[in-house]
Amino acid sequence: MPGKYIKIVTFLSLIVIVAIQGSWLAHTYRLIETELLQVGNRLFPQAVVDEAKTRLDRLSDTQGEDITLSFSTNFDYQREIDQTLFEYLTILANDYADSVYHSSISLPLADSIFTVRLAQEGYQAQVKCQLVDSLGAPLQEEDASAWHHPFKTLRTNPVYLNREHTQAVRATILNPYWIAFRQMGVLLVATALLLVFVAGCIVYQVRIIIRQNRIARLRQDFTYAMIHDMKTPITTISMTGHTLESGLLDRNPELKKQYFAILHEESAHLLGLSEKILTIAKLEQSRLKLAQEPVSLPTLFDELTQKYRVQTDKEVTLETHCPDSLLVTADAEYLKEALGNLIDNSLKYSDERVTIRLSAEEQNRHILIRVWDNGWGIPLKQQKHIFEKFDRGGLEYKKEKKVSGFGLGLNFVYKVITAMGGSVSVNSIEGKFSEFTLTLPAPNKKL
User: Which chain regions cross the lipid bilayer (predicted)?
Assistant: First the structure.
């Protein structure tokens, strides 16, 4: 499956998981909210009766009367006593307070008692009581803003205070969300951790799948490129060997010598490719030991320029900028091979006229070696992948150009330079230039 569809399926799967978990949490919240409302409707009538009893006790003490009200409100009126009888008890207590003491319900006292009742049940709630008429319109309230709370509130059933049912009191629980969240605290944390863990596992698996698909595709491309690229030298070697074996060139020593030169060149080409693949494998397994010795960069640059001026058929301008006697700590042969790969890429990924500039300088006890060319350049999105094995960034946008190679050159450069204790970086603008910078230790730097 293409990487784009894998990402889409993964994204949809995460959405489904989040939706299922969210639906479950929402259902759990509604259950807690329903339970809280049921507890509130059960406890609030008791709180109203407690308020009347407390108010009457205070009034009798103030008036110097010896009146003792001894009835219990610690019962569940929905189970132990008929609701009508309980409402009658509430109305009786309030009518008595009103007729004898001209005292009506104290909303702050009702708030306090109801809050204590809820706390005894394990609900730390903020409540506000309100006096309403038979239609629910407010007659008296402590804080009007509480009834226009910006967040959701829960309202208990009204408790009537007179026989005509023209006055009732009801309570509002202002913070049901926090109550539910406190009860769901462990559940929410566990759900969040589970979602993060599942999402992380899915993303990790998708990255592995995409990487495996990419590696498989790169291997297929490598196999095709290797067969295609090796077919020509193998065919040439086979035909040249057959011609030499036939004896047809025995009478023409000069032509025979050219054929032997062709055999040597093509054999060296195949051997060099095999050694490059073997070197990369050894570096990955940390089995290759590189020499660390002073190398003269001016001498190395001269050897490279002479070699590639002869080998290329393009109109190439090779420039060198290097201080005399500048040394670098490296393995001479592998450094030469790495720089040769960069120059070879400059020749491959460019038009018929190309300028290549080799330069070196010392900065902060390190030697910076730069290989610059005015070739095709490398797209920004591909620059982070070009040092990977089998990657060939130059062919992604120049498909009409048939460029030989297996995508091992830059990976070889990266592996070799890092094995020498250095680093490799690239700076390129598509269609304008490419510049590779090799940073290596100076000769007297301790490794």
Answer: 184-210
Amino acid at 88: Y
Contact of 391 with 383, CB cutoff 8 Å? no
At residue 78, the 3 state secondary structure works out as coil
* Residue pLDDT, tens place only, 183-241: 777 777 877 787 788 878 877 877 787 777 777 776 666 666 666 667 777 888 888 88
Which residues, in sequence order, are CB contacts of 100 under 8 Å at separation 6+?
A: none
- Report d(CA 282, CA 273) in Å as an integer: 14
Whole-number Cα distances in Å, 408 to 261, 341, 379, 388, 390: 27, 9, 19, 8, 6
Query: What pTM was estimated for this model as a whole?
Result: 0.48
Helix axes 332-348, 409-419, angle to 10 degrees: 150
Query: What are the counts of helices (DSSP H) followed by strands (DSSP E) for the chain?
Result: 9, 12
**Per-domain residue ranges for the chain?**
3-183, 186-284, 293-441
Among candidate residues 307, 293, 277, the one with its CA nearest the CA of residue 406: 277
Q: What are the contacts of 16-22 at 24+ separation with CB within 8 A?
A: 17/195, 17/198, 17/199, 18/195, 21/191, 21/194, 21/195
250: alpha, beta or left, given left = phi > 0 and alpha = psi -120 to 50?
alpha
Diameter over CA atoms, the chain: 147
Coil, strand or helix: which one is 288? coil
CA distance 265 to 281: 25
Pairing outcome for strands 366-373 and 353-363? antiparallel
Provide, rounded to the nearest whole percent, the portion of the chain with pLDDT above 70: 79
| Run of H or E including 372 | strand 366-373
- CATH (one of 1.20.1050.10, 3.30.565.10, 3.40.50.10190, 3.30.2320.80) for 293-441: 3.30.565.10
* DSSP structure string for 235-282: HHHHHHHHHHHHTTTTT-HHHHHHHHHHHHHHHHHHHHHHHHHHHHHH
Burial class of residue 159 (count of CB atoms within 10 Å of its CB; 0-12, 13-18, 19+):
buried
Q: Using alpha carbons only, what angle is made at residue 303 by residues 302 and 305, rounded to the nearest 5 degrees? A: 65
Q: Report pLDDT digits (tens) over 248-298.
A: 787 888 888 888 888 887 787 777 777 767 776 666 666 667 888 899 999
